[in-house]
Design brief:
Layout: E1 8-15, E2 21-28, E3 35-37, E4 42-45, E5 49-53, E6 55-57, E7 63-68, E8 74-76, E9 80-85, E10 92-99, E11 104-114, E12 125-128, E13 132-134, E14 146-150, E15 167-169, E16 174-181, E17 187-197
Parallel strand pairs: 4-11, 12-17
Antiparallel strand pairs: 1-2, 3-6, 5-9, 7-8, 7-10, 10-11, 13-15, 14-16, 16-17
């Protein structure tokens, strides 16, 4: 009795105690053929989901069973596993078994799980109005990646916003976001906050004579510069205070 053989040509050889032998042949035909198809190996980004779609070649009353290889986990008894999610970077091999009560066939498919790219938009910083600032870092994203910086409205680009290190002209407080798509098609993002240091505003002189006009010399936004040094000169350039 031989089990799990395939259709085809077989021969048997018998050898007796005198080392005499003879051979006979037989052909095993298939009364039914079933071939399972779990699909082609594919890639997915960690945190994403996909559908596993199974099929078969043959005829009969078919039943399906999807399972995770190297485990006892049965995930579906339908031909399609909908929205299976990959929450870690371990590759997963799935097995599809097709059965018509007489014959059984199994096929497998491997899903390779890719990690998200590491993204570094740079360190939050403060700059004065009109300053030229380079966004990103030495390694804004992995080599060969595509980049997109947003927002583009009020984004004073001096070069391409799809560059890993674009230069901008600082004009306001704003969060800039870079989205990086690596060679596997996986995307990740990071932010950098640019705080505008306001320009100070002050009159060129004042007359503290008590007449109620220009008696006080007020410097707007001076509280933004706690370590500043203020020097007051008279009209002849002599330092008074």
């Amino acid at each position: 009795d031989i089990y799990n053989i395939l259709p085809g040509f077989y021969s048997v050889t018998a050898v007796d105690d005198n080392s005499c032998f003879n051979t006979a042949d037989t052909i095993v035909e298939a009364t039914n053929i079933i071939t399972a198809n779990a699909g082609s190996d594919t890639n997915v980004c960690v945190g994403n989901c996909l559908d596993l779609i199974g099929s078969y070649f043959g005829s009969g009353n078919i039943s399906y069973q999807w399972s995770v290889v190297d485990s006892n986990i049965v995930i579906s008894n339908d031909s399609i596993v909908s929205n299976y999610c990959f929450n870690n970077i371990n590759d997963v091999t799935f097995s599809l078994t097709v059965n018509d009560q007489n014959c059984t066939n199994t096929d497998s498919v491997t899903v390779f799980v890719n990690d998200l790219p590491l993204v570094n938009a740079g360190v939050d910083t403060s700059e004065i109005f009109g300053s030229i600032l380079t966004l990103g870092s030495i390694n804004t994203g992995p080599e060969g990646s595509n980049y997109l910086w947003t927002p583009t409205i009020n984004f004073m680009f001096l070069d391409d916003s799809t560059s890993p290190n674009p230069e901008i002209e600082v004009s306001s407080d704003i969060n800039y976001t870079v989205t990086v798509t690596d060679t596997n098609g996986c995307a990740n993002s990071d932010e950098i906050f640019i705080k505008l240091i306001p320009e100070i505003s002050y009159p060129s002189g004042f007359s503290p004579n008590g007449d109620g006009t220009n008696d006080k010399w007020n410097i707007d936004q001076i509280d933004q510069y706690p370590n500043c040094e203020v020097q007051i000169y008279n009209r002849w350039g002599v330092l008074l205070f």
